[in-house]
Recover the amino acids of this structure.
């Protein structure tokens, strides 16, 4: 699962096996280690407790929750993404985007991502 953060935008991209695992278990998790005892963990969870996409950060952990029904529909369809906005404060919002990861169109064939979804614009 790829994590992209830019300003108040949080984006998670999942490969085919990760989407399958998310559909089967309702959860996908990754982590990046910076050194001994230093890491950032990011998790995508399906949950009946939320009515919309929601993200939470605490002690080196980002958790993004998706309503279980929306997660199931996304996994079982050709739908590419789930998106939402979480109010922060004032007029600010955190934009949340969950996507199926497509193969890059501009990489040489030897570098294609085998686990990524076939790109719809590929020949």
């Amino acid at each position: 699962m790829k994590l992209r953060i830019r300003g108040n935008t949080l984006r998670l991209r999942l490969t085919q096996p990760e989407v399958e695992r998310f559909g089967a278990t309702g959860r996908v998790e990754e982590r990046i280690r910076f050194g001994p005892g230093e890491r950032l963990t990011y998790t995508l969870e399906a949950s009946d407790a939320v009515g919309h996409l929601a993200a939470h950060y605490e002690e080196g952990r980002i958790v993004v929750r998706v309503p279980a029904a929306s997660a199931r529909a996304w996994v079982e369809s050709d739908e590419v993404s789930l998106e939402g906005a979480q109010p922060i404060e004032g007029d600010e919002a955190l934009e949340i985007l969950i996507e199926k990861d497509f193969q890059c169109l501009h990489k040489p064939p030897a570098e294609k991502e085998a686990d990524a979804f076939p790109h719809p614009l590929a020949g």
Observations:
- The first strand starts at residue 2 and ends at 6.
